[in-house]
Amino acid sequence: MPYASVDQLKAVIPSGDLALLTDFDGAETPSDARLEQALDDASAEINTYIAKVVSLPIAETPHILTVVCRDLAMHRLYMNLGHGSEVYEALRRDAIATLKSIAKGETAIGDDGDGDSALTSPGVAMTDGPDRLFTRKSLKGF
């Protein structure tokens, strides 16, 4: 299951480019099947990065994965057409950097702030450390 829908991908591609990117038969209409294939390919690539840190399949897609999926699919579509531009290369670089960050555990993907957040560890409280330098007693009179 792709992390983004065809409609979500269509929303970020200029309408004039849709048919150009997907219509190889000359019908001058966008091919949802080609868009779906690009999203499937992008989702498979995402899974190769996050599979070790996240249990797959993900029940509810986090927004960041939708964005990364759209960017990778868009890059794939434009590159297949031969329109290599720095903008689409930057989209891919940023998406891959985000995925690497997720894989290293530097970036969280789970909580978008829409619901209850779950602790990722038991949250042990630190109870020892150096004595406090400033206390009520030591600051009395200031």
Automatic annotation (TrEMBL):
This is Mu-like prophage protein gp36. InterPro entries: Phage_Mu_GpJ.
